[in-house]
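Ligand-bound model needed. iron/sulfur cluster.
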Amino acid sequence: MRTESRPAALSIEGLRVSIGGHDVLHGVDLAIEAGRVHGLAGESGSGKTMTGLAVLGLLPHGSRASGRIAFGGRDLLEMPVRELNEVRGAKIAMVFQDPATSLHPMLTVERQLTEHMRHHLGVGRKEARERAAGLLAKVRIPGPEEALRRYPHQFSGGMRQRIAIAVALACEPEVLIADEPTTALDVTVQAGILRLLRGLCDDLGLAVLLVTHDLGVMSAVADEVSVMKDGLVVETGPRGQVLREPRHPYTRSLLDALPVPPGENSP
Amino acid sequence: MTMPLTGPLLSVEDLVVEHRTPGRPVVRAVAGASLHVAAGEVVGLVGESGCGKSTLARAVCGLHGAASGRILVGGHPVTPLGLRRRDPALTGVQMVFQDPYSSLNPRRRVGAQIADGLRAAGDTAASPADLLERVGLPRAFAGRYPHEFSGGQRQRVAIARALAARPSLLIGDEPISALDASAQAQVARLMRDLAVESGAGLLFISHDLSVVRLIADRIAVMYLGKVVETGPTAEVWADPGHPYTRALLAAIPSPDGAGVLPAELPGDVPDPADPPSGCRFHPRCPLVMDVCREKEPGFGPVACWLHEPEPSSPS
Ligand SMILES: Nc1ncnc2c1ncn2[C@@H]1O[C@H](COP(=O)(O)OP(=O)(O)OP(=O)(O)O)[C@@H](O)[C@H]1O
Ligand SMILES: Nc1ncnc2c1ncn2[C@@H]1O[C@H](COP(=O)(O)OP(=O)(O)O)[C@@H](O)[C@H]1O
Ligand code: SF4
Ligand SMILES: [Mg+2]
Ligand SMILES: [Mg+2]
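Prediction:
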């Protein structure tokens, strides 16, 4: 299944970010390929979220970014805001740990799902609605037709995250950056979402950057794994190698800190 | 606060809690659930989102009335708040919510908020800074406002505030899911240690089974408003009885580097306003039998027709 020769869908090179004069990323290198899930692990505060936000041009005020973020032959860091707006949300989408970040509390689920679709994909109202219901079914929202008419607060937290993922997928992006997307979800729902992400990768060639602290999740879906510490990627490699024979002491310490593998003595 | 203890610290017996929204069918979020927490014990309540965990926790705190059934804290029945006076049964109950914003006042320094708890407990020996230190935060943070903390730090503050009141029962409703990942196990352990150290009971609600496994003495598995299995954590883990518990455990991905996707539980989470007949899990159960569609398995510790207790056998 490995396609070594495929060019990276998104390539981050020497990314440095400082916020208010304080350096948070010290030259991050990451390449994400179409049809692959790239897992990103690392200590809290190591810069995983900042890396994702830099790709989308969503860094906090007072931030400065340098280096290169190559997408479709262009450098996103150099791209004028107008063009960047066309890319983000449509070609590159992001899902956050807290669905409140991705969803608008005052808009129906239907509007949040169809608005971008109609703008970026140019589909009509009826088709957008059908697609929206289809997406909700895909992320396993019960009663998708009826759910379209409701507002985010009328769903449980887990359901809101599933809706946020559906919104991110609405415009059929090429790159999906998912920052701890299943951390707030049930394992049963998580299993469905991981299968969904894997399927989107395999079937549609989506490139996924999956930020997760959960090495079980990493092991289940990631093709490549990178590990960050203090604003730098300290280790990158194929899943099996990084999780079984880590080279960097920090990766080893993450693995050593795991509780007894869950399910180890279950039937 | 100490309480005269007869039997468990917390008893929830056949509790029914309903949500009523005008123009919508009544949602029976808790539909006859029973569980117990002893002093010094950590009970993990797990189950899929929407199964009624938070509703149950809110009812225990008196934030939601019960339609039927009983809640006893330290042997005293809990009645809902909203009345002028706080129910005396509730003075020893503290809750830490998933979103610490909902329990901390954004306009007051955290030190002052922790001091409220200390005052309520009549504690003149400890200072807010001491409590911050106990939850692993610098003492100087007492002078900060809630927004000046990271999500994980804010949750520690909420825990410090809850502990300041010296609860005999601490309830954490998904208290770690807003935390940055690497802090989750750490904070869960911290809650366990601090609760057990002070002899309090801890009802720890989470959807994260691996964390519950780390800290809970016993677990209670909830499905669609009912507790379907209870037991010592290690036993349930080694030999889950209820098919739903088995499905939950099978969904945990293993960090072995093998790239195996975890097993998915087929079917949708049913609508609690319109629960399936008989065993509520039957539409999704791989082992469903005829009896399951008709009769509800209303017994424990495993509420499943495959585990019906034999009346004659000695327990
Ligand atoms: N708005 C902000 N202003 C100033 N510094 C910030 C801001 N947001 C984050 N930082 C800092 O940037 C660094 C990287 O943060 P980032 O959010 O990327 O961490 P992370 O790896 O995603 O951590 P976690 O696992 O906790 O989500 C940290 O040192 C953090 O304190
Ligand atoms: N305030 C409310 N009004 C109406 N329905 C609610 C309310 N809160 C929760 N529910 C419903 O009650 C059920 C149980 O919810 P909840 O107790 O929050 O579950 P959990 O905490 O296990 O995720 C869900 O179907 C949810 O949609
Ligand atoms: S009672 Fe029947 S349907 Fe319910 S869990 Fe047991 S076997 Fe499955
Ligand atoms: Mg982050
Ligand atoms: Mg809840």
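Chain A has eleven helices and ten strands.
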